[in-house]
Write a structure and sequence with these properties.
By secondary structure, the protein is an alpha+beta fold. The chain has two domains: 40 residues, no CATH class; 137 residues, Alpha-Beta Complex (Nucleoside Triphosphate Pyrophosphohydrolase), CATH 3.90.79. The chain is built from three helices and twelve strands, in the order βββββββαβββββαα. Strand 1 and strand 2 form a beta hairpin.
Length: 190
Amino acid sequence: MKHLSWDTTRREKIHDCKIFDVYEVDRTSYDGSRGTFIQIEAPDWVTVIPMTQDALGNQCFMMVRQYRHGNQAVTTEFPAGTVEPGEPPLQAALRELLEETGCRPATITKIGAVSPNPAFLTNTVTYYVAEGMEMIQAQELDEHEIIDVELVPVNEVLHSMGTGTYSNGIMVAAMAFYQRWRGLVADEES
């Protein structure tokens, strides 16, 4: 696959945007082609899929509703956030879950990781399933975070993901990893 690779000859930060940095990158391909590309260096993210039951014993996700400034709408999502420099993703997942919901899980399992858009983003999103949720404190939200925590039946999320308030693309990827983890994805060899 060497013929598909490009070598970096120059990388220069051209803008600091608080939550990410923009770089201009000069690269040369295996056949000698040259180009200038944009890279967005963003922190790694984590997304936690908290599993619990409602008062009737129905399997539910613990989800958060919040206003998103990008699409100017309220979304329904799993607790998530950025990984701090030097922080392991698992620790970030536990921290974000606690901050946003006030809960600690009995168990937490890594179920996948992806590059959210390798065309220009440099980061990775790591996904976890948290089970055995226990409320241990009040929310500790970041400045400007206003979050409602709600229990949403698993089937509602499975059927609604990608529509309405479930429009966050990172959540769609979370559901794909969840379905594989639960064995809901058919094995092609069967």
